Hints:
Arc Repressor Mutant, subunit A; homodimer
Amino acid sequence: MEKNWTDLSNKEIDKMQKIAKSAAKLFNEKGYLETSMDDISNAAQLSKGGIYHYFSSKNEILFFISANFMDLLLRGLEEELQKIEDCFSKLKYFISRHIKFYSQYLSEAKTVIHEAHLLPPDYFKVIADKERQYHQIVSDILFDYFEGKIEKDRLKAVAFILFGTCNGIYYWYNPKGSITPDNLSEIIGDILCVGLTGYKQQKGDTGGF
Amino acid sequence: MEKNWTDLSNKEIDKMQKIAKSAAKLFNEKGYLETSMDDISNAAQLSKGGIYHYFSSKNEILFFISANFMDLLLRGLEEELQKIEDCFSKLKYFISRHIKFYSQYLSEAKTVIHEAHLLPPDYFKVIADKERQYHQIVSDILFDYFEGKIEKDRLKAVAFILFGTCNGIYYWYNPKGSITPDNLSEIIGDILCVGLTGYKQQKGDTGGF
């Protein structure tokens, strides 16, 4: 299933994004299953009819949030990475870009992580495919970074650890606090990139990953 | 509020742990709010009366799971750390111990992370206090590790990043797969410890965290 929102005017898209933003915040606070269309209508300050004009169901709102967020992560990423020569810089760029989008769209990120799996299978497949595509990009960078000398399962583990480190931020991070998104991306980037270099070095020295 | 389970026999505690294990798995699959006492009774293969003999409510089961898991993390930790001399080894030990318990009790860990906040405030306070205590232990190690030369907010961020990295594993980790809990703890330990050393070095060189 692939929903086509390309025929809509900018004004319509803006309205949908406003509804989606209110809904994502509610999903974070109450959980997707506990949130009703009435709650969304109240939070978005629109009549229920107004919401149904844009979205035929709550599932569709969840799908809109998730697909848009994944598209935001994927859009232009491969082209941007191609312009960077070495894998270490690619990795650093990927992490810093990921943190930037996550801290800028915390409610949407949290919604994708915690609620997207509640979508009906045909909707969820679209999101899972986008997630796989995003995951593959970082796995490819890591594979090059380890010069191919890493077992498949370890590569998978390292990629997941990388995402775990970046994605755990939504539990506690307040982008309006004293640590700016740039600071955060620098801290995580330093820890992960240096850590991976150390891991590569150490395992390379002992002859095996 | 502090529930006292110390007067129970080992046999009773075993039974409660069996119920709690089944409930934790259900909370992971369906979410706490969506799980009924009927579901728990079916999964634990006990009558509802049998469940109510041990727990007066679903809240009490969630509390039992969360308190037990946090106690498991805290029990003996400070004594074990005191026996280790340098902060780097303390940090490595803490991470490896954390991963060991998390991979061994994945359902319980996930329940604490995702469901404990749904407890009534007086129950939740007990869990949050234990979490704070655990968090404080790692913050103290990190503070020593950075020789006190780290701002409070950055220290907090680094501690949360450490937990995020370790706790993200439950999304994907299968302890029965080719990466054993020991392998995983080694991979994460290497990445984080080397990463933190690099972070410390880098910031120390430029004169500020």
